[in-house]
Design brief:
- The complex is a heterodimer of chains A (220) and B (105).
- With 220 residues, chain A is α+β, with helices and mostly antiparallel strands.
- In chain A, 45% of the residues lie in helices and 18% in strands.
- Chain A contains 7 helices and 3 strands.
- In chain A, α1 crosses α2 and α1 packs parallel to α3.
- With 105 residues, chain B is of the alpha+beta class.
- Chain B has a single domain, classed as Translation Initiation Factor IF3 (2-Layer Sandwich), CATH 3.30.110.70.
- Chain B has 2 helices and 5 strands; from the N terminus they run ββαβαββ.
- The relative contact order of chain B is 0.34.
- The chains are: A alpha+beta (220), B alpha+beta (105).
- Chains A and B meet through α1, β1, α2, β2 and β3 of A and β1, α1, β3, α2 and β4 of B.
- β1 of chain A pairs antiparallel with β3 of chain B.
């Protein structure tokens, strides 16, 4: 009798606390994602070439655990087969959280975007039920203020971390570079691609800061 | 040392490809954390202790990879990848690898 009581108690408390936590988490995710949209995370492998960027590896991880109710439901679904919805929402939360943490680190570096974003999911055993870890990582591109890349729009003036319009132009350039039809010379933005667009001073070693000093290692 | 998971840098040239460098770290958590985590398994939510543990473990693996790159005379590691696996009950391995290169200005 006691065992049945304990089981019901665990199931009910798992359901109540689990749902409460999930709702709260989703609300917080939506709010933070709206804010984080200013810093795009892109899965493309080619960085934009419109200006000079410093590259930093950034990452965010989260270990998330299932609750008793979810685990029980997953066990039930396992008998009949089908999509395990309790775990779908769980892993969705974990992925979005990991991405947000990665973006937060990139933002602290003053990045304009994060390129080549990769996800990694691992199941780690904790007790009986288990938990999973999600890691999101990518390369934060931080506009370099020490290298002036004179484009016609910018008038040669080096700007700090990307403003909205700045990001939009660079982003379209980056995406254009990746799509095959944009490889024709006509589609290229002349300002960003022609050799004259880069000021000669920017090419000399003195204009650049030493690689070891300026680009500090930022492990995840 | 520049670390990036992109394959090239638009404004720098690679003088020399040195080769693959790697670092790994295996960690397990202590009992106290495990007890707290099993409680969390009832109510659900984030296991902060584990998040930190894996984060630290990843930092250590990255540091080992960079140490190897430094010894080989590299000044950058490109195309870095992470990989995680649970190799035994309660222990997970973090593995990180990339291409060590020497960059010119």
């Amino acid at each position: 009798m006691f065992e049945v009581g304990l089981f019901v108690l665990l199931l009910v408390s798992g359901y109540l606390f689990g749902r409460l936590a999930e709702r709260r988490h989703f609300r917080s995710l939506v709010a933070r994602e709206r804010e984080a949209n200013a810093l795009p995370a892109i899965a493309a492998r080619r960085p934009p070439v419109d200006r000079a960027y410093a590259q930093h590896l950034v990452g965010g991880n989260v270990v998330i655990s299932s609750d008793y109710f979810k685990s029980f439901m997953a066990g039930l679904i396992n008998i009949f087969g089908g999509s395990v919805t309790p775990f779908e929402s769980l892993i969705d939360r974990a992925r979005r959280e990991a991405l947000l943490r990665m973006k937060a680190r990139a933002k602290r570096l003053g990045a304009a975007y994060v390129f080549n974003v990769k996800f990694e999911t691992t199941r780690i055993a904790v007790g009986r039920v288990g938990a999973m870890e999600v890691l999101a990582y990518g390369t934060a591109l931080v506009p370099r203020v020490d290298v002036a890349v004179g484009t016609s729009e910018e008038g040669g003036a080096p700007t700090g971390s990307g403003s909205g319009a700045d990001v939009a132009t660079a982003l379209s350039g980056a995406l254009a570079a990746d799509s095959p039809e944009a490889r024709t010379p006509a589609a290229r933005t002349p300002a960003a691609r022609t050799p004259e667009a880069r000021t000669p001073e920017a090419r000399t070693p003195e204009a650049r800061t030493p690689a070891s000093g300026a680009q500090a290692v930022t492990p995840t | 040392m520049l670390v990036s998971n992109l394959e090239f840098l638009p404004d720098r040239t690679v003088l020399r490809h040195i080769g693959l460098v790697q670092g790994s770290s295996v960690r397990s958590k202590h009992v106290g954390r495990d007890i707290a985590a099993s409680l969390k398994n009832i109510f659900g939510g984030e296991l902060r202790g584990y998040t930190e543990l894996l984060h630290d473990s990843r930092e250590e693996a990255t540091e080992r990879m960079l140490e190897q790159a430094r010894q080989l005379g590299a000044n950058a590691v490109l195309n870095v990848r992470y990989s995680t696996s649970s190799i035994a009950a309660g222990a997970s391995e973090i593995f990180v690898y990339g291409t060590a290169v020497e960059l010119g200005d």
